[in-house]
């Protein structure tokens, strides 16, 4: 009798455990659906238009820019910290919390979530491979990690910075990348080596970026101005944009981002004055124009994304909108107003007519079919 009661007790316990396990799995499934249920706008079929092919060239025009609409929207559990398109434009990576979220840009669908529980998930950049990224740490230390998103395996740890990394920039044609940090240094790395190849120290936090062809890189601080270096050999800058030349045009006490336009003709500097300042990348004495509207009360840093053709620049606004400015004449071409949260990251797809933005949701913007039909030239 005692043995029978024991068996009944074990069976009852097993049923309870099975019920609890089933309930836990249901919670996990429901949570995943809540965060990864991709929404598609009925009016915008998700068919990305390539900007270049063997027999056609598609470019952004005012009509295309003005027709951008949210084609896919997906919630994130926390505010995004970084974003990167793969070189082919087929994949999008967004870092949020302790995970990296991967999206298929051909279908707009969520692919997978890559955990980074120990080190956190900060800035992210695709390498030349669609399965590998470099990603900065937000916890434990300030290392940069070389991560395979295929099998969630770290190829290498890049140790060198002692404070938070504020910029990653991968070279276009080589296995090298640069990183900037609040430890007042720019470090240059090779994906095949653990130790940095070169270090440039500064007296304040620098911001840097590679040129579109990987032949030059630029570094900027408020005291030194913008310095252009030859990436193929060490040495002093070959061109300097002196703060004395553009001081009357550029506002802000700290520089928050620096980018080349894809055509290499423009340098775009972002500051804590919440404006973007456009320079001629071939003439250190030519300040072109400023974009945006200064908002000292803003709590989120200004996000700036130059288009792949170099003619347009997208800027985030304090009221959750995206303004697209003409980089050549300084006019506002379009306002995208479907955001519910602050925008923490924003980029144009390098190969397709697509804009991505992320805050507490990832949004992929596509132009209408009618607009892209008129973009063929």
How would you describe this structure to a colleague?
The chain has 377 residues and is mainly beta. It has helices spanning 2-36, 62-66, 243-246, 369-373; strands at residues 39-40, 69-75, 80-85, 91-96, 99-104, 109-115, 124-126, 132-136, 144-148, 153-158, 165-170, 176-181, 185-190, 198-201, 207-210, 216-221, 225-230, 239-241, 255-260, 266-271, 276-280, 287-291, 304-306, 312-316, 322-326, 332-336, 345-348, 355-358, 361-366. The protein has a five-stranded antiparallel sheet. It has a four-stranded antiparallel sheet with strand order 3-4-5-6, with no helix packed on it. A four-stranded antiparallel sheet has the order 7-8-9-10, with no helix packed on it. The longest helix has 35 residues, at 2-36. The N and C termini lie far apart (88 Å).
Q: Choose one word for the global shape.
A: globular
Number of helices: 4
Helix percent reads 10-25%
* Biggest beta sheet summary: 5 strands, antiparallel
Quick one: how many beta strands? Answer: 29
Q: How many whole angstroms does the radius of gyration measure?
A: 23 Å
Uncertain runs = 24-37
Class derived from helix and strand content: mainly beta
Query: Mean of the pLDDT scores?
Result: 86
Classify the beta-strand content into a percent band: 35-45%
């Amino acid at each position: 009798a005692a043995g029978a009661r024991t068996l009944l007790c074990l069976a009852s316990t097993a049923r309870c455990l099975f019920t609890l396990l089933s309930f836990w799995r249901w919670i996990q499934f429901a949570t995943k659906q809540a965060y990864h249920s991709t929404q598609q706008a009925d009016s915008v079929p998700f068919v990305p238009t390539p900007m270049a092919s063997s027999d056609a060239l598609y470019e952004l025009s005012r009509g295309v820019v003005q027709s951008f609409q949210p084609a896919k929207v997906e919630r994130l559990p926390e505010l995004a910290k970084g974003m990167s398109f793969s070189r082919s434009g087929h994949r999008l990576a967004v870092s949020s919390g302790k995970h990296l979220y991967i999206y298929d840009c051909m279908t707009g669908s969520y692919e997978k979530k890559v955990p980074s529980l120990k080190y956190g998930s900060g800035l992210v950049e695709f390498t030349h491979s669609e399965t590998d990224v470099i990603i900065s740490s937000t916890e434990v230390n300030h290392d940069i990690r070389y991560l395979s998103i295929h099998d969630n395996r770290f190829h290498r740890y890049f140790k060198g910075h002692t404070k938070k990394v504020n910029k990653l920039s991968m070279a276009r044609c080589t296995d090298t990348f640069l990183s900037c940090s609040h430890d007042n240094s720019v470090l240059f790395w090779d994906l095949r080596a653990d130790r940095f190849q070169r270090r440039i120290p500064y007296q304040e936090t620098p911001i840097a970026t590679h040129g579109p062809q990987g032949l030059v890189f630029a570094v900027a601080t408020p005291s030194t101005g913008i310095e252009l270096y030859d990436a193929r050999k060490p040495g002093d800058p070959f061109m300097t944009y002196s703060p004395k030349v553009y001081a009357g045009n550029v506002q802000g006490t700290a520089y928050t981002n620096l980018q080349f336009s894809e055509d290499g003709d423009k340098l775009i500097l972002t500051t804590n004055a919440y404006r973007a300042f456009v320079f001629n990348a071939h003439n250190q004495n030519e300040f072109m124009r400023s974009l945006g509207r200064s908002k000292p009360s803003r709590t989120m840093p200004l996000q700036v994304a130059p288009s792949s053709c170099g003619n347009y620049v997208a800027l985030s606004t304090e009221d959750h909108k995206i303004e697209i400015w003409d980089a050549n004449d300084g006019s506002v071409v379009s306002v995208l107003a479907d955001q519910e949260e602050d925008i923490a990251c924003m980029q144009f797809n390098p190969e397709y007519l697509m804009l991505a933005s992320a805050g507490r949701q990832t949004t992929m913007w596509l132009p209408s079919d009618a607009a892209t039909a008129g973009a063929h030239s």
